[in-house]
Amino acid sequence: MEIAVTNAVATMLAELTPTPEPPTPNAASATPEPTATQLLSLTPPALPEVFVSDLLNPMDTPHAYIENQCEYLNKKWNKGKAEPGTVLIPIMFHSITQGETTKDNAISKQDYKRLMDDLYELGFEAVNMQQAVDFLYENENIPRLSVLLIVDDRHYREYFDTTFRKYYEDWGWPVVNSWINQDDAIYTLVIQQNVDLSNEGWVDYQSHGYVHNIPMSDNSSDEYLLGELQGSMDKMTRDFGKSPIAIIWPGGGFGVRPAQTAAEIGYRVGFTINPRGPVMFNWVPLADESDPMRPSYLPEGQIGLPLLTLPRYWDTDLRAHLDEIRQISSSAAEFQKANRATELEYYRIVCEPEYGPIGE
User: Fold this and answer.
1) Which CATH number, 3.90.1150.10, 3.10.20.90, 3.20.20.370, 3.40.50.970, labels domain 86-316?
2) Domain boundaries in the chain?
3) Model confidence pLDDT, tens digit, residues 340-355
4) Rounded CA gap, 149 and 177, in Å?
5) pTM for this entry
């Protein structure tokens, strides 16, 4: 009797216990993400070569300034960063004159207007120096075709009001003035006018040295370099209420010691008078050797500080290069997009354990 009862109970319990459903294909567990230890055992792909454009002069080659590949890729591909192929075009203005021009560094008002209209119609937009620095250091987002309008030397307020204000009011384009700081008769005449423009926010003032008329070089004394760089920064801080972040090298003169001194003092960028080409994030075209065909353009590659020797296009011949600049931008964008998967895989294996994942 006990056996019969026991069998009956077992049968009842079996009927009450639900039979587990067999797993369906959709219920299969996903492949787990590899751990940091597993990532270390993977072989990363080879990174692509640096983008090179045959539209540049053969002696003007791209120089990188971020040595750490993980840092570079993190800033290049993270969410919210500048679009692939984003270019920055520093432009050098000196004099904008009525009628015919008689100097190499002057542009007629008619040609100046044509240049500005062409820039706008081709999709270029102007940025200020802080935006340019944020792009160059962090790849922060700026318009894909960006220009930096840099006016050298001191000017009366009227100069800015009659030449650049229209473009600020119509298009929101700021302008940068490379300011000479020497306390002389001209300074006395124009300082308050320029402080007022700075306070209005559309003219961005950066350093053009103190004495200015004697270009800096490796032969300059320590005293002179400090006067031109630290003296200029101190005076601009007092006059304008903010410190300059850019040195626009007076006369285009620079050297290893001037560039190193500028970096130590706190300048983030420097600009030459050499029209090498457009600038991109971690990509600055510079020359490593003197060019017999362009003897006045000092080679910058040997300085080793690309951000302190950035090129500038001359206003008088920029229009002839606008199409090639846009082609460089498009080609760079295609190159970067084609190599994105490879770079992200490298980053995932090599960089992610330390730098974290890249946001989409």
Assistant:
1) 3.20.20.370
2) 86-316
3) 999 999 999 999 999 9
4) 8
5) 0.88
